[in-house]
Design a protein that fits this description.
The complex is a heterodimer of chains A (583) and B (299). With 583 residues, chain A is an alpha/beta fold. Chain A is built from 17 helices and 26 strands. Chain A has a domain of 104 residues: GMP Synthetase, Chain A, domain 3 (2-Layer Sandwich), CATH 3.30.300.30. Chain A has a nine-stranded mixed sheet. Chain B has 299 residues and is an all-alpha fold. Classes of the chains: A alpha/beta (583), B mainly alpha (299). At the A-B interface, helix 6, helix 10, helix 12 and strand 26 of A face helix 2 and helix 8 of B.
């Protein structure tokens, strides 16, 4: 790699007047500082509203959130005896308990370990042991898994919260009643060898100390650790990206800079993606919280019909999501017939946005669906499309202000402009490294540059286009086939709802392209293999065309709805195990 | 006969049920449902063409006396009951379709029920004292529309209150049936014992045959099996409490008791038959889902 201190930034010319070239001077010392000041300035406004599928809801004002997160911080420090830097695992779906636990953790000077509530017991054990979490805040629906987990961890206190936590009492009881007796998803909490209590009781205990909570985080600075965000489950075990207060705060400034400062405190964002994922954590929770705006939290966005009452009942102005969520929404009749009237824009991330989806969204809602790009390791935003007509379809946009981006060849040298290369990022939002994994850190970070593993191309205006994941490439007779390109072509067919392209072994070409297709049920005629083959023939050169087409009712997806190519690859590995390559 | 207090109580409970029905949906749900109205139209046909004719035909075939015939025809002409939504849920049917059919059939009931009742009672030769004045029914229905609309408004103003009332309304639907049975059966058990088979066949058969024909009609009109099962339950499950309310407001004394006989008997048995049918449908729905899963890989 070239050790140049400041590589060229060709994208700055495309910023125009709406995007500042530099980030503003830091305004907050830490996320606790941000939370404290934001809650003071917006005390009477509504910060969070959680909406369950039947429309029942509960809200927290900024003032109430401040009071509750203070109480939780006091509970962590005094009742649990935590010290600054100690880890608190939070394993909650979107709901009012999440911001209380997250901001309480920051205010205690502790480190938040976001944990997926759907994790299996072995995954939980790994993450809790690896992070060394001492306190766990978990949704009561999944507390039964703790019986086999807790003894193998250092967790000393378990705090239970419900999906309808902090709802008004009658709706709270009804939601709990329905969960328990109707849906049977509320198993009894097992007897645990550690202290176990409900979040309300924890807050009560914390409140009783009347502790000077502001003192807890006075020593916390921008370089201190804020989050352990686990990632990289694609191969091997998950590792914790160490994100500092400064990483998140810088990324917030970057989000506001690239969006041209158009988000205001009167906005209302639909948060259907889980907050334990870095995308929604930064783009929804932190970005709109900092403005004094309102987050509409959806505990479970699947089936996508669960969003109907939330979209109907609240003046949603922004939606964040992944390709599959937007696609799913547009296939719902209630959404297609009455798209949200106050919507200003939607932000896509997490996985490649298909152009057909973006175009349909613009036509249906009259608002842009802008694609951004980011990683857990970069808190997450790296690049973003301007929200005006400068946006380039199929592009992940311009690098955000304050950071450097280069595309590198396999030897770590910058590639010529217009050539594909591995995207590397350096900037204030880049993590400190992986938690207790120096080897992994060394593999991923070189001289301050983070290697993303994504192959991209930059045009002369500085717009980036991801061609694919380095490891997802299909190598057909030595030619690179980028699955995204093939999927994009497939998504142009009306009969295709979703598709995933992966490599299969092939005797003649080494690897060949296989396409998994989910048919669009609303399409009148059932899609046939011959039609797909014909379509691909007119859009793709020979080696890029799928040699094998498999129809599925659904595709494996991650909790945020990313299609998991790795699961399909695992299936293929089993399918071809011992068979050798087919002819 | 029901005491005045009981009649009032029945009226109030009906109001709450309708309030619940109204708050189970929004104005927008209506607009959306009518963009693809086929399912609802099929439901309306089975509700207001098949069922009333079935009621009339059974009354004739079984040679029921006028009081019983009126009760049977009235039950047959009723809109869908709100309890059908609970059964639709448990049978893994299409809940939205069930709610919409119940609501739409209740709304159009203001016009259809008086007309149909008039027509079929005339055809059945019901005269004089047993005639239910069309105005009575229209009045009751119009009065019930008020809480329905109120429920929709409530839902819009306060989603928590709306959703709570919705649940309360569905529960009350079951409670009212239990209330009717509890207050009526002990006073009439002698009559129950002395009643001949035809009356039982009528009271039980109307619901079962309705479900069967509703299913066939829906399938014939190319509704998928899941929607057909929903339409089937919706067709068979009538608004029994509403029929009881109309009767108590129209008749008194022994006459009331006689006319009320089949509607109450129907309400009693429909809970039982629907439960069995729901279990059967649920098994079919699960089997179909499993079959779809198994057929996932189609190379």
């Amino acid at each position: 790699m070239n050790d140049d201190a400041s590589p060229p930034r060709p994208w700055l010319a495309s910023y125009g007047t709406s995007i500042p070239r530099d980030l503003p001077a830091p305004r907050y010392r830490s996320l606790a500082d941000l939370a404290d000041r934001t809650c003071r300035q917006n005390a009477a406004r509504t910060a969070f509203t959680c909406v369950v599928p039947n429309g029942m809801n509960g809200s927290l004002s900024y003032a109430r959130l401040a009071e509750m997160s203070d109480a939780f911080a006091a509970f962590l420090r005094i009742d649990c005896g935590l010290q600054p830097g100690d880890r608190v695992a939070v394993q909650l779906p979107n709901g009012l308990a999440y911001p209380v636990a997250a901001f309480g953790t920051f205010k205690a000077g502790c480190v938040l370990v976001n944990t997926n509530p759907l994790y299996t017991a072995p995954e939980m054990i790994h993450q809790f042991r690896d992070s060394g979490a001492k306190v766990l805040v978990i949704v009561d629906m999944f507390a039964d898994k703790l019986a086999e987990v807790i003894a193998q961890t250092d967790i000393g206190t378990v705090v239970l919260a419900g999906v309808s936590e902090f709802f008004p009492s009658l709706p709270r009881l009804i939601v709990r009643g329905v969960q328990k007796y109707w849906n049977r998803v509320l198993p009894p909490v097992p007897d645990l060898p550690v202290r176990t209590l409900r979040l309300r009781a924890a807050l009560k205990a914390g409140r009783a100390h009347r502790a000077p909570v502001a003192d807890y985080w006075q020593g916390t600075g921008r370089d201190d650790l804020a989050l352990l965000q686990y990632t990289g489950g694609t191969t091997g075990v998950a590792k914790g990206a160490m994100l500092t207060h400064g990483n998140i705060l810088a990324n917030l400034d970057q989000v506001h800079a690239v969006s041209g400062g158009v988000m205001t405190r009167d906005d209302c964002v639909l948060t259907a993606l889980p907050l334990y994922h870095i995308f929604a954590f930064t783009a929804n929770l932190m970005t709109f919280f900092e403005l004094g705006a309102r987050n509409i939290l959806i505990p479970s966005p699947r089936p996508v019909q669960n969003l109907q009452r939330a979209i109907e009942n609240y003046p949603v102005t922004w939606i964040t999501g992944v390709n599959t969520l937007f696609n799913g929404l547009m296939n719902e009749e209630w959404f297609a017939a009455y798209p949200p009237r106050r919507l200003r824009a939607a932000i896509a991330g997490g996985t490649a946005l298909h152009q057909a989806v973006a175009r349909r969204w613009q036509a249906m809602t009259g608002t842009p669906l802008a694609e951004g790009y980011g990683l857990t390791e970069t808190a997450p935003l790296v690049s973003f499309n301007p929200l005006d007509d400068r946006a380039r379809p199929g592009s992940i946009g311009l690098p955000v202000p304050g950071c450097d981006v280069v595309l590198m060849d396999d030897d770590g040298r910058p590639v010529a402009q217009g050539q594909p290369g591995e995207l590397a990022v350096r900037g204030p939002q880049v993590m400190r490294g992986y938690w207790q994994r120096d080897d992994e850190t060394a593999r991923t970070m070189r001289e301050g540059w983070l290697l993303t593993g994504d192959v991209a191309v930059m045009d002369e205006g500085g717009f980036l286009r991801i061609v694919d994941r380095k490891k997802d490439l299909v190598l057909v007779s030595g030619f690179n086939v980028y699955p995204n390109e093939v999927e994009d072509v497939l998504s142009l067919m009306e009969g295709v709802l979703e598709s995933a392209v992966v490599a299969i072994p092939d005797a003649k070409t080494g690897e060949a392209v296989r396409a998994y297709i989910v048919r669009n049920p609303d399409h009148p005629a059932e899609l046939t293999e011959a039609e797909i083959t014909a379509h691909c023939r007119s859009h793709l050169t020979d080696y890029k065309r799928p040699r094998s087409i498999i129809f599925r009712d659904e595709l494996p997806k991650s909790p945020i709805g990313k299609i998991l190519r790795k699961d399909l690859k695992a299936e293929i590995a089993r399918e071809f195990a011992g068979k050798g390559a087919p002819c | 006969m029901l005491t005045e207090t009981e009649t009032t109580l029945l009226g109030i409970m009906m109001m709450v049920i309708m309030l619940g029905m109204g708050s189970s949906m929004t104005w927008r749900d209506f607009l959306i449902a009518f963009r693809k109205p086929k399912g609802i139209l099929v439901g309306l046909v089975s509700q207001y063409v098949i069922m009333p004719f079935l009621g009339y035909a059974l009354a004739m075939i079984l040679g029921l006396p006028p009081a019983m015939a009126v009760g049977l025809i009235l039950i047959a002409c009723m809109p869908g009951g709100t309890t059908s939504n609970i059964f639709a849920y448990f049978s893994k049917g299409v809940l939205a379709l069930s709610i919409m059919m119940t609501t739409v059939s209740t709304l159009v009931a203001v016009v259809t029920v008086p007309l149909l009742l008039n027509f079929y009672s005339g055809l059945a030769g019901v005269t004089g004292e047993y005639v239910i004045p069309a105005g009575n029914i229209a009045q009751v229905l119009i009065v019930l529309l008020v809480p329905t609309v109120l429920g929709m408004v409530l839902r819009k103003v306060n989603a928590n209150a709306g959703a709570t009332i919705e649940l309360l309304g569905s529960l009350l639907g079951v409670i009212v049936i239990l209330f009717l049975i509890g207050s009526w059966v002990p006073r009439n058990y002698e009559m129950l014992l002395n009643t001949g088979l035809p009356v039982y066949i009528a009271a039980i058969g109307i619901g079962l045959t309705g479900m069967l024909l509703g299913y066939w009609l829906a399938r014939a009109l190319r509704q998928d099996s899941n929607r057909a099962r929903t339409i089937s339950l919706e067709t068979g499950i009538q608004n029994g409490p509403l029929a009881a309310l109309v009767i108590t407001l129209t008749f008194t004394g022994t006459q009331q008791q006689e006319v009320l006989f089949i509607p109450v008997l129907y309400s009693l048995f429909i809970v039982i038959t629907s439960s069995f049918v729901t279990m059967w449908y649920r098994r079919n729905a699960t089997a179909e889902a499993l079959a779809r899963d198994a057929a996932k890989i189609r190379v």
